[in-house]
Each structure stands twice: as structure tokens, then as C-alpha cells.
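subagent[fold] <- orchestrator: predict structure for attached chain, return C-alpha cells only, no commentary.
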Amino acid sequence: MTSLQIEIGPKDTLPLILAQRAAATPDRSFVEEVDGASYTYQQFHHLVKKWAQVYRSLGVAEGDRVAIFMPPAINTAASWLGLSWLKAIEVPINTNYLGDMLHYIISDSGAKVLLIDDRYLDRLTDVADRLPNLESVIVMSARAELPRLKPTLIDGDRLLTTSTGIEDVEAPKPWNLAGILYTGGTTGPSKGVMIPWGYYMNSIQTLNYLGPDDAFYAPFPMFHGTGKVPFLAMVAFGGRVVIREQFRTQDFWRDVDNHKCTISILLPAMAKWVLALPPSDDDKKHSLKYVTMISDIDAFRKRFNVIVNTHFGMTEAGVPLGRNNVTDNFTSCGKVKPGYEVRIVDDLDYEVPVGEVGELIVRTNQPWTLSQGYFGKPEKTWEAWRNGWLHTGDAMRRDAEGNHYFVDRKRDYMRRRGENISSFEVEAIVSQHPDLTGVAAIGVPSEHGEDEVKIVATRRPGSTLTPEELIRFLIPRMPRFMVPRYIEFVDVLPRTPSTQHVRKVELRVNPLNENTWDREAAGIEIPR
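subagent[fold] -> orchestrator:
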């Protein structure tokens, strides 16, 4: 075995493997920011240990939750892994959140410490007085003078500078919780999915074709699982991670070539934007070898001469379906991956015949490789994990060769540019407008793939509220990705006779009718 090869045992976790690589290949490059710093394995591991000491100095201990409200950066990744050595639990927060949604995540998770970038501090100030359990806030890139606030604000850069790191700690085990990841609620507020370290290690098993010469291009937010995969994979297989804070189409190929990246993930909108670039004689002259994507596979593969892998996953389940080196049948989500069992069942959990549509349910054959339920919501956990299987809420069918095909979303949520959006949360914010008496949020298929958000609403008698006025009301109250593109005012919303629930199936029949207003056509831009 060479120094680049590390044997990974069934009970090993990412922090332990990182420590082993820091010892075996201390000077080997591990992580780079496209326009900034770069760290070797040893330097990054030391930074992780410094973060562990910072957290311990603030009283963080095993089982404590720490919220991280940070942009993608080397420090963000190190702060996440620093928690692992204390067996504390990361609660990553979507950096688009503000107002009630930001308050909900911090409050629901019971986080006692928050790590935040200074650029988001004003959003915290708006909700801080409603967070009695939050004890300390670590502010990175802090302004010259931090405002007075309860909880206490602490200059994170100073803490990190004086930290020497800790050694008297053990790496987490597969059964230790790594994080609580909040996913868009379907019938209520977002739920915190409890992720053990074994889940993270299981998620990269099918990337074992990678090695120490690979570099993972990662222009992804780190509050999503997608943003964690590059770190998990490159630590496991000895390569490099290349971070860009935000995906930019015009920088994609330049970044890939400047940093000799060999693998990346493209969400549907990203793939369409890259394909929309003008054709060039250099389209096949680049370092990229592998791309994981789920749309436009054939066009992308042929134009850019890359190996395409496709996967189906969700926060609760990991990635149970997939296919590597896709050359045909690319409308499929793939076949069952090693370590997983899946079924397609009816409403009573009985398996349906091949070719018929049912709900995809999942389980694994190794312990601690699925999520462990919803934090603080045992009844929701039971509902999703009924009969020993995780119910995905996704309608699928399977052919005789074992290929799985996505049919529809059984649950009532939308997905826009990689973000799961809860219709419940959209409706709760839109309903705050005093002129509205009823609100329904639905997804409309986007020309970029995934969904655009549409609001169908009723107004109070005599109201002259316009769609543009409603959009102006919503922009400061919700994340950018959640702001509706389409609005339609109606006299009455269709409802069920008994429960009076809105019949959204009727609203989806002709979503872009003549009465539908389009924000993009109106030229209204959402500030970043």
C-alpha cells in the first residue's frame, strides 16, 4: 500500500480519514478557493482542530447543536468538521434565509451557538430577540465594531487566530450524529433530518472510480448535501476540492481548466446554462472527465466528451438509485445501488407489479447508513419510516431490467434551481399580505428544468392589489429562490367539500393561462 492509499474500514468516518491523510501525505494539496487560499491535507486538518478548540472554549460538547450560516469557503468546511471532534452536531442554514424562516431553523434545532458571516448579521439582528436558547454568535469577517446584541457576538477571526488546536479527542463513529439538515416541508414547516456519520460515508461508495489525481469542482452551497459530497469523496480517495462561492456559467470552463478539475456535479439549470454557451472548437479540450447530472445527458456527453453519471437521491435516503457511464436509457433514474434495497408500493405498502406506478420506499443493509428520523418530530418520523422502510413520497415505476423512472412528486413541494421549496412555507409568507384572503402555491415546469413558483390567490373585496405590488411585498420577506415568478388572482380557490383543502390538481391543469402574470416578462429583478 502506498502513502496515497488508505484502507477505509466499515466504522471509519470522514474526520478520522482526514487525520490519516494529514499524517500520510501532509504536503499534498487538498482544498483550494478559485480566487483565494489553498490548504494541504495537514494544514486543513490543523484548521479543523483549531475550530474544535474554538467551539469547546464556548462550552460546546457532545450532542450540542451548532448552526452554521456561512458562504462556501475553506473555513466553512473546517468549522463543520471541527464540530465532529467534539461529537457536536452541525445545523447548516440556507444562506438565502431571513426573517421567520431563519428564526425557525435556529429555534427548532435548539442551537446554542451560531457561526455567521458578517454579511448576514443584519438578518440575525432582526430575529435575535426571539432566540432565548442561542448563547453565543461567532462572527467571521467581522466589522470593526460589532453591535451590542443578546446573544453575545464574538469576533471569530480573533478566536481562530489564538486557537492552537486540540488533540485529546476521538473521531466520531458511524452512529454519532453529524448534522441536522432541514429539508422543505410538504405539509408543514421544514423538518430537520438527522444525519449520522455512517450516512455520509455510505453516500460516496459509488464514487470509488476516483483517485488521488482527481479534483472535484464545487461551486455549491455547503448547507446542502451536494456541497458536502466533494469533501467526502476527496478525503476518501485522496484528491483535491476546488471551491467557488457561487456557480457562474461564464467561469465554469475557466475554473475547471485553471485548477485541472476532473469531476463535478451539474444541477439541471446549471447544465442548461453550460449547454447554452456558444459552441467552440475547444468544447472537448478540457480536464473534466466525469459529470453527475440528471438532464440533457446525451447532448452534454456528446458535445463535451465527458463520462456522465446519473443518480437519484433525497436528504432522508441518501442516493439509492444511479447509473455510471450513461450512454443510453438516460431517461431513467438508474438501478438500485449496492447497499440499498428499494420497492415500489401502493398506499398500503404492498409492492406493485413491474411497470405500474407506486411510491418508492428505501432501506439499507448496513447500520447507520440512512438518516435517523426528523429532529424533535417522532410522529413525522414514524409516518416516513413506516413498516421499516423510508417512504420517499416520490411516485415511480420500474421496468423489467430494473431501471427506475420518476413519474411525479407525490408530496406537495416544488424544486427550483436545486432548492426544495415547501408550498406550506411559501403560502405562510404570502398570506401575510393584508389584502389576500386565500393563497395556494404550485410548481410550474420551468424551461430550465425543475419548477417555477406560482401563486394563485384571492383578494379581499374592494382590493386593488396588483401582482407587481405583491412581488415587491414578498422580496424582502423570502429567499430569492422562493420568490414567485407567476401570480394569478382568482375569485375563488377550488376546495374539497369536507376538509376545505385547496384542490391544487385543478390549479395545475392550465397554469399559464391568460390571467397569469409573469414577473420575468414584467422585468422585475430580485436583488442579490
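orchestrator: received. Logging for downstream: Residues 321 and 477 are 37 Å apart (CA to CA). Residues 41-57 form the longest helix (17 residues).
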